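pinging the channel bc i need a second pair of eyes. not urgent but kinda urgent?? the chain im working w is below, pasted from the shared doc
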Amino acid sequence: METQESALTLALLAVPVRAVICRVLLEAGEDGLPAVDLARLTGLTLPRAAHHFQEMVQAGVLAMAIRERHVCYVLKARRAVREALGYLDSSGLD
């Protein structure tokens, strides 16, 4: 496993809801989702989700964008996220 993938896998394991956030964003495509929709789809309150989103932005996993007056989040490291989630799925660690 590459270093970026290893670090990402460990980060996703440490906080499993972040793996859920990544899965939802992978499914959403390259345009990402508004924060409100992303929170709803992951089953989190917006304040709780915002904490995770901010941490993931600081880690370089997500990017924040403003679209039509909505805060949106997009996966920055789609390939690494896909590989890390694949590793989690194949190892049964998630």
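so The longest strand covers residues 62-67. and Strands lie at 33-34, 62-67, 70-75. — does that match what u expected or am i reading it wrong
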